[in-house]
Amino acid sequence: MRAKRYSISTLKETPSEAEITSHRLMIRAGLIKKTASGIYSWMPLGLRVLKKIEKIIREEMDTAGAQEVLLPAIQPAELWKESGRWDQYDEGLLLKLKDRHSRDFCFGPTHEEVITDLARTELKSHRQLPINFYQIQTKFRDETRPRFGVLRAREFIMKDAYSFHSDKASLEETYQLMHSVYSKILQRMELDYRPVEADSGSIGGNASTEFHVIAESGEDVIAFSTESDYAANVELAEAIAPPSETENMLEMEKVPTPDAKTIEKVSTLLEIPEEKTIKTLLVKGSETEIVALVLRGDHTLSSVKAEKLSSVASPLRMADPEEIMTALGCQIGYIGPCNLPFPVYVDRSAAAIRNFVGGANEDGYHIRNINWHRDSKIEAIVDLREIKVGDPSPDGKGKIRLKRGIEVGHIFQLGDKYSKSMKANVLNDSGKTTALQMGCYGMGVTRLAGAVIEQNHDESGIIWPHVLAPFEAVIIPINAQKSQKVFDKTEELYAELKDLGCDVILDDRDDVRPGVKFNEWELIGVPHRLVIGEKSLKKNKIEYTHRKKGEALEISKEKAISLIN
Ligand code: ATP
Ligand code: MG
């Protein structure tokens, strides 16, 4: 490739809307251009990276025996109505469309319905199973807050795979295989990543693992053990309760707490640690109007855990102040667990304390020395809170540390969730009709490009791992218009590298100064830079710089080629 005929459009200024490094660098390096909010065009340089990501994914999926298909991006509403997700899929994410006959469609945010429809017509016998189909395709999700460039876009490319089985054991086997395929893919991209136990969200089903690229800018928080492989999304990580307190129960006492509507203020005013207070949250119920959730004062509610309670409405919604005033006659800051007219679910850690402080259900008052059972009925003791730093790891080994991650992949065991509702059955080996067991495996192709940059950059720009760089090497001649020798040597090296199969670009632009070219290629992040100039040629040398190491070496052409290889 010659730069003179290639689209290179770097920016000196940092785009104002870009909040994080990868977004800034992708725009500045000219890899992507914004077309609309959360919608991007991929420029030739960026597309080269995307193709390399796709190539690695395809190679590993093919090796694992998965078969590539291409499903439609536009999907008929009927299929989504059959699965029940037309009205249920995460509010607002689904982009609904109508055709000229006013028939309903959506732009696919995911493809469980379409593939299950295909499976119920194509798969008739257990002899065709297991089978795993995958595609690399554009999805659309109308995200509430598209941001971070390609990391949370509205239109993005995903590799999604769906496997079908006659029984759970076979599903488990493919799930484990995909687990190792995902690890292999991320290792080939030289990423620092972790598989993490996760929630299966609106896709549904049982077991699920997310693959996170570790990065400060990540939107998810992951709980790790200091001493084992345990890692789980903080939304879901099991919080272990401390041993139950055994102190003697004291007499309850109502105390005035004017203006103390927060845990912090109550604990300061009454001179007690936050660990000896509780907070009572009122949320909408599914069977009763309201459900009370109780946590220790220093703990935070996990909305994912709360939503898993069948008596809590999903998605989680807090009761509003008027409702609370009507039901209890007090403001939010004074709610407590005694004599509540709703079912009370208590977090394990909150259930373990004695003689604690809670609201009096009366404005301006709290109660000291509340004790469970004696003073407040418990519907159930459940795991409701987010795990925090220093908590014991749920596997019993070590303590919890938190790190941020970018979810680049997510694998699920769906079981028969879609095959049941959409009647995708096969004949098993004893001739009986059974619902297909199903797994699904997503990986964010465009998101991966951003995640790689989050882990590989410096103040000058991107530092691509060799396998993903848009070009592996760039040759920059100095004054080739004036020096025939420079011109000849440059052409010679360019031809030689191309013959070796190296992805090389020759920067033959006459109207760009060498210093500017150096900055541009550093920004774009090409791993090997070769500079050919009169001065070093006199010594029969060229100047070689590795993007990551940064130091310029004067070496022979042969040495440079061997370094690139
Ligand atoms: P998130 O929690 O980040 O919203 P998700 O759990 O909804 O993602 P999945 O349905 O598991 O996503 O989709 C599989 C993969 O698709 C994700 O692991 C991620 O890599 C990618 N992906 C999902 N949403 C987006 C998006 N808005 N922009 C870019 N990639 C995305
Ligand atoms: Mg996910």
General description of the model:
By secondary structure, the chain is an alpha+beta fold. It folds into three domains: 47-68 and 108-237 and 401-454, BirA Bifunctional Protein, domain 2, CATH 3.30.930.10; 253-382, YbaK protein (Alpha-Beta Complex), CATH 3.90.960; 473-564, Anticodon-binding domain (Rossmann fold, 3-Layer(aba) Sandwich), CATH 3.40.50.800. It has 15 helices and 30 strands. The structure holds adenosine-5'-triphosphate and magnesium ion (MG). Residues 210, 407, 410 line the site of magnesium ion.
CATH topology label of the largest domain: BirA Bifunctional Protein, domain 2
CATH class of the largest domain: Alpha Beta
Unreliable spans: none
Q: How many strand units?
A: 30
Task: Provide the descriptors you would attach to this structure in a database record.
single chain, 565 residues, alpha+beta, BirA Bifunctional Protein, domain 2, YbaK protein, Rossmann fold, 3 domains, nine-stranded mixed β-sheet, five-stranded mixed β-sheet, 30 strands, globular, binds adenosine-5'-triphosphate, binds magnesium ion
